[in-house]
């Protein structure tokens, strides 16, 4: 696989603005672990290998267990995730697949059981943001680094 376009070089002001939203979400008060897991789940749905790789490595770097990272894709069948995380995954899946239909009142009510209104806005922006990153990385074929057995970036 070969990168089609370096979007950072082609439009640094636009990509920088997207990066600014990322920084704002990181400072919003949502837990870093939740941000990593939501980013990972949306990236899995969207088939973005660059982002799946990056968010897996970042989650592990920040203390997430390997088992939880591996089971994000099967979160419904795993007891490893809190009710708040489960709600966030459900919200992430619904918004990432928004063309499947509207967000129903029952899901919205469940979200408010686990998130304040402010946190729900932050989570919603996070989901929109990772979907934006996926929609930038996938068509331009961003290529994740190749890591060898010694955890070094292969040449």
Commentary on this structure:
The chain has about 160 residues and is mainly α. It has eight helices and no strands. It has helices spanning about 5-10, 10-25, 30-45, 50-60, 65-70, 85-95, 105-115, 115-135. Helix 2 (about 10-25) runs antiparallel to helix 8 (about 115-135). The longest helix is centred in the last third of the chain and has 21 residues, at about 115-135. It is globular, with a radius of gyration of 16 Å.
The tally of helices reads 8
What fraction of residues sit in β-strands?
under 5%
Extended strand count: 0
The average pLDDT is: 94
Amount of helix: 55-70%
Structural class: mainly alpha
Could you spell the SSE succession in H and E letters?
A: HHHHHHHH
Gross morphology? globular
- Ends: how far apart? 15 Å
Largest sheet: none
Weakly predicted, low-confidence segments: none
Q: Rg from C-alpha positions?
A: 16 Å
